[in-house]
């Protein structure tokens, strides 16, 4: 979905997260993720360079503070793809941010997409599906939910664009200060 947003020239900065996992065959360093060695990642945590970080499915993931700060300084929207844990952490330090939960319409659609992707072992796939079920109990952390239905990615992107527009029109005391 983020790729479609980029293709449609949505005027936002798409923050590239870091990970310690190896790249998949189709992934490009600096495009899909920044792939770093675990000692480098640990040093970034130690230096306070990450807005959030977490160990997920045996690998570290994190959001570089610098990219987000640069977007904000330029007055641009920063779009960050994180899991529930990452969203909860960011919400603590940036409660004024807008949080959107993007999801397939149901568990069977998620299962199909993960199986089609063919990047996880059977046990990892089962863990991801179990985790996804638990994530719905955390919807209260989010401001919006967008359904990303098969074959309807443009409709989901349209929904996200509408959310961005709505947020810019919303009256909030924090933004007026």
Q: How would you summarize what this structure contains?
A:
The chain is built from eight helices and eight strands.
What is the count of β-strands?
8
Radius of gyration: 17 Å
Overall CATH class: Alpha Beta
How do the strands of the widest beta sheet line up side by side?
3-2-5-4
Structural class: alpha/beta
Helix tally equals: 8
Helix-strand string: HEEEHEEHEHEHHEHH
Shape: globular
Mean of residue pLDDT?
88
What attributes does this structure have?
two-stranded parallel ribbon, Rossmann fold, 177 residues, four-stranded mixed sheet, alpha/beta, 16% strand
Describe the structure.
The protein has 177 residues and is of the alpha/beta class. It has a single domain, classed as Rossmann fold, CATH 3.40.50.300. 45% of the residues lie in helices and 16% in strands. It contains 8 helices and 8 strands; from the N terminus they run αβββαββαβαβααβαα. It has a 4-stranded mixed sheet. The chain has a two-stranded parallel sheet with strand order 1-6. α5 (107-117) runs antiparallel to α6. The N and C termini lie far apart (34 Å). The model has no long low-confidence stretch (mean pLDDT 88).
